[in-house]
Amino acid sequence: MRLIFDIAATHITGRGRQMLVAVLGVAVGVGFSIAMAALMQGGQDDFVRQMVDTMPHVDISDERRTPRRQPAEDVFATAAISGLRPRDDRRGIINPTAATAWLESWVPGRFAASLKAQGVIRYASREVGAAIIGVDPERELAVSPIAEDFVEGSFAALIAGGNNIVVGDTMATRLGAGFGDTITAVSSEGLTRNFKIVGLFHTGTTARDEGEAYVLLKNAQILSARPNAINEIRIKLDDPGLAPSVARRAESELGYEAVAWQEANESILEALVIRNVIMYTVVGAIMLVAGFGIYNIISTITHEKARDIAIMKSLGFREADMRGLFLLEGVAIGAAGSALGSLLGLAMTYALSLIRFEIAATGQEMTHLPITWSLLHYVIASAFALSSAAVAGYLPARRAAGLNPVDIIRGAS
């Protein structure tokens, strides 16, 4: 085996320029693959992290996935019900005190109950449609990152009580109102109530910044004439991965629709999976192109060393030795390219992490490219490189092993 290694080294060093080109081809492919994977994975992780941080992990509403079971269906084995008119009852989660107490006993995280009502916000002669959300400020701060999005005032100002309200800065601009002004909220029931603006937030999401207003839960209940009512419970878990199981348990016990963040963003997560498939397909294509260079060099060596192969086989070298020799040369080029490419990928990833810029159009700043440092990227890129190198080396190695030494020495080949 030591002799095989020495012969392989002699073949490689004997074609230094061609070998250098092949190694650089593999290195560039590996380096760009690592940098691309770090950037794309970083963007994906940053997107998912923002999505998980800004929305509840489980959202329980007063909706039901299926209509309530009718009493006739419990009495008769076969029943066809038509023309049924639903009861004219007020929407909301029934017995909210018991529901929140039950959730408190087992949910591994925090939750906040709220009452969302549709209404109109007025100031002087202007008005905008809005979702008026009644919350418990202390509990809301535990499940929502909105406290970090205030441009004036704070969400904690609601804790002081009274007729206070926080609104999006876009809504305030449309109304012509500002911090400290008194606006009027009109519910869909026709009830009105005056509130003082104690905070302006900017989330960067237009629908929220121009269409949401937060008040104390009791004020929302009074405004909508629904005392003690809630219609949404938002849960923030210590481990977001537990969201599907928590949602299933809550829905089976309470009977209301409970949606995990994975379910709510299923199409987005599927798109991310497809993007990863495309990314690794491109990586494989890059390594395949590099493999053609290796194949060309090993094939040329095989052709040039045909007489040497014949002599070696006549001296007792087996076909397996011939295959191993040229396969070893291909893998050696792939390994050298992978090592050099890993260093190149590390340098490129570090350079990308140093790029600084700002996006101020949405009111949010991103001062650097999202980069993920992962050993897996280096392993995958190197595995692709070594695999393509092994295949590129095996094909001419198999041909070399099948050469007949007698035919070569006689000049038949």
What does this structure look like?
It is elongated and about 100 Å long. It contains 15 helices and ten strands. Helix 1 (2-14) packs across helix 13 (319-353), helix 2 packs across helix 13 (319-353) and helix 11 crosses helix 13 (319-353). Strand 6 and strand 7 (192-201) form a beta hairpin. Strands 2-3-8-5-7-6 form a six-stranded mixed β-barrel, surrounded by four helices. It is of the alpha+beta class and 413 residues long.
- The SS-based structural class is alpha+beta
What's the number of structural domains?
2
Indicate the proportion of strand residues: 15-25%
Principal-axis shape equals elongated
Low-confidence runs of at least 5 consecutive residues: none
| Termini Cα gap | 28 Å
Arithmetic mean pLDDT: 81
Order of helices and strands: HHEHHEEHEEHEEHEHEHEHHHHHH
The total count of helices amounts to 15
Taking all Cα atoms into account, the compactness measure Rg is 34 Å
Describe the sheet with the most strands: 6 strands, mixed, barrel
